[in-house]
Amino acid sequence: MRTITTTEELAAFCTEAATHPFVTVDTEFLRERTYYSKLCLVQLAMPGTDDSGAVLVDPLVEGISLEPLYELFRNTDVVKVFHAARQDLEIFYVDAQVFPTPLFDTQVAAMVCGFGEQVGYETLVRKIAKEGVDKTSRFTDWSRRPLTDAQKTYALADVTHLRQVYEFLAAKLEKSGRHKWVEEELEVLTNPDTYITAPRDAWKRVKTRTNSGRFLAIVRELAAFREAYAQERNIPRSRVYKDDAMVELASNKPKNHDELGRARLLLRDARKGEIADGILKAVEAGLACPNDDLPQPDRSREKMQVNPALADLLRVLLKAKTESAGVAAKLIATAQDLDSIAAGSRDVQALRGWRMEVFGTDALALCAGKIALTAVGSDVKVVPV
Q1: pLDDT surpasses 80 at 254
Q2: Which of 10, 158, 246, 256 has its CA 20 to 30 A from that of 295?
Q3: Burial code of 184-214, b = ≥16 C-beta within 10 A, e = fewer?
Q4: What are 9-62's pLDDT values in tens digits?
Q5: Looking at the 3D structure of the chain, how many domains does it have?
């Protein structure tokens, strides 16, 4: 197993990789103690049937630059193949504001090819490559050096088997003509907004049981302070304060350090210094928020007048369509999408792009009473009315 530790070695590998139609990529990282993922290892493999074209890249070696790899990512003649690429792409975007182009995600492709929802790498390797994957090193500390032989073997297998998985899925997509479907799904992965959390919007991820605008205004300010503090210092949000502590603070509205000290769920470090000052300022800002700027909870679900019978029919139609198309149902429409369509909404993902072709057109026809569903043996068929 070859480990690259210099920029020159990486440049030489990437120059050779650029002569091939694709390269498989994976990473190992840690995120337990940081806000942003800490890249600990990069695995790369060129086409082939053995390990000779596969390498490990150690980004923790002093002086090494990943710029040759980023140049390869920008090379549109070489497909960059990942499995479940989201976290890998976030690492590269945060580090260098670069996305691999063109991109191929075998997890997305597998869903389009009928392997089920969010299928795991081990499952694909077992079904396509007829190999097993040793996952015993999955939860090891990838930042410690030297890496063990077991770690290196595990890491390399994540890109060597991926070559065969990619070739199989790419051929299947070529045969079915569904490349565009995968490309549509990958658009969100190559959108910078996917990986940027604006502090002002962080409150939307906090689960609360109160819909009071004033309460939510305090939560918004507390969440914004926590997000900015964590980003600037590259520490986990939970190291500042956890969601349950935030909800407690928004409920109790402490006005000074004495009142803040009575909080039950607040970490010790958050009761003093910059964090304590930030909390008090956030609470004050939330209390002072003008009424016309108070956050409004999303009540669209409550207002929906869902026709339950129609929603059930749409579920039957979706099952029939996914079985005939060989696509994971969740990839086409969620339960919320179906309820929204049954309530009359047309601004849903299931009615756009390739989903419209597979499911949306008949879904709208069913809602309009233009088609019906009938059972033919064990199958459900669409019939015009």
Answers
A1: yes
A2: 256
A3: ebbeebeeeeebebebeebbeebebeeeeeb
A4: 999 999 999 999 999 999 999 999 999 999 999 999 999 999 999 999 999 999
A5: 3
Helices assigned H by DSSP within 177-297? 179-186, 213-233, 243-252, 257-260, 273-287
Q: What is the DSSP letter of 367?
A: H
pLDDT exceeds 70 at position 195? yes
**CA 365 to CA 13: how far, in whole Å?**
54
| DSSP code at position 269 | G
**Hey, is 205 helix, strand or coil?**
helix
Amino acid identity of residue 130, one-letter, is: K
Per-residue pLDDT at 306: 87
State whether 333 and 317 are in the same domain: yes
pLDDT, averaged across the chain: 94
Sequence-distant (6+) residues with CB within 8 A of 193 are none
Residue numbers of the domain that contains 206? 200-293
* Same domain for 283 and 183: no
In this structure, what token pair is assigned to residue 320? Answer: 């029939």
284 and 222 together in one domain: yes
**How many residues are present in the chain?**
385
What DSSP designation does 270 have?
A: G
95: left (phi over 0), alpha (psi -120 to 50) or beta: alpha
Provide the 10 A C-beta neighbour count for residue 132: 11
Q: Do residues 317 and 332 both lie within one domain?
A: yes
Single residue among 262, 293, 324 that ends a domain in this structure:
293
Helix ranges (DSSP H) in the chain:
7-17, 67-74, 86-96, 106-112, 121-124, 149-176, 179-186, 213-233, 243-252, 257-260, 273-287, 300-303, 308-325, 329-332, 335-342, 353-355, 361-367
The average pLDDT across 58-81 equals 98
Is the same domain home to 101 and 156?
Answer: yes
- Return the SS3 of 24: strand
CATH number of the domain within which 141 lies = 3.30.420.10
Taking the CA atoms of 357, 363, 368 and 370 in sequence, report the sign of the dihedral they define: positive
| pTM of the full structure | 0.90
Radius of gyration, alpha carbons of the chain:
25
